[in-house]
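Hi all, long-time lurker, first post. I run a small reading group and we've been trying to get comfortable going from sequence to structure in the token notation. Rather than ask abstract questions, I figured I'd post a concrete chain and ask someone more experienced to write out its structure so we can walk through it together at our next meeting. Sequence below, copied exactly:
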Amino acid sequence: MIAHTRPTSLLAALRPQNQDRLYDFYRDLRDTDELCWDRTLNAWVATGHEVVSGTASDPRFSSVRYPDIEAVSEELRPLATVLSRQMLYSDAPDHTRLRALLSRAFTPRSVAALSGRITDAVDRVLARAAPTGRIDVVADLARPLPLAVICDLLGVPEQDRATLSAWSDPVAAAIGSSRLDAEESAAASRAMAQMLDHLRELLTRPDDRPAPHTLRALLAAGTEDADQDLDELLANCALLLIAGHETTTHFIGNAALALLRHPRAADELRARPDLIPAAVEELLRYDSPVQLMLRRARHDLDLAGRRITAGQAVLLVCGAANRDPAVFPDPDRLDFHRPAGRHVAFGHGPHFCLGAALARLEGTIALEALLTRLPDWRLDGPTPTWQPSLNFRGLTTLQVAFTPTTTD
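-- Answer (accepted) --
Happy to help. Here is the structure in token form:
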């Protein structure tokens, strides 16, 4: 069978003119065909909800990102080696074993216990902004809040957080890029090595007893198992720190922008706070923080009428699937009364996001506070721009003005 080829590569999504109209761009790709070969990326690109969700949970596909480490560039190889130890890029039984261990930090009780601390953190940010009448939702709230929460949950001291965040940025950029030059690859590998060295020193200190359900407690429990590799545990600790704040940062920023651009929807939530849980799901669907998942065919197989050969990559475009009109009627409309859908913003299948409940909680508290504390907020500053990433969708800045207030 001759592969169907799109006239435009998915890589064109990174063009500035396509960033603000990203979902129109996806619609054009999906209308061409829901599964097409992308010659530029040397991969299949899936944009329909059925093929995206189905492939994500299909055991015929692997989640391994780097099947041959030796084939990776010398500069990127150290980072690729670490990523290959992470559960996100592994298959059963390794994925099952690692997820079972790390899920101890995300039990319903552990997550619920963070509610008060999240509320206090949001209140402090908004209290500082209140007399100024201005806030950068990304820099002042969406970025520091999830970082503080995941570090708090995992037992990372406050003084270490800014350093860890700085190291995570080039790693996240590398994960989200399909093409890195030698300098970018080397920078990402160095940052990951520094993060792992710091975590190793921090988390193996014998000077005190770690609190339950923290990263240190998990590490201690894991290293009691003779079969558990310390480097593997550290790699997955790094995954939690990076994924635990990057994606939630983007979600809060994207959701805030959507509400600013849809003031009637924002007013509805102010009048009907009981709709906020449904709104969180709709906002996740509407502008997903994670846009791509990668799978590789374990063997030759048929998928959506195409012949996929062993080892070929399939890029699952979650953002496009979440705007598929076959599943979400009138998909470009922000609708908090939409019937409970099947969005794939948190992935699908065995690799469904481990921190989904925590992200929902943070988003709920942050958005409710923004809506109630800043009733007349408005965009005021540079036109919002997006980080250049195929995998992650997040704003670089979101400057907002509102009526200043003071407290006695």
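A couple of things your group might point at:
The two ends are 73 Å apart (CA to CA).
Confidence is low (pLDDT under 50) at residues 1-6.
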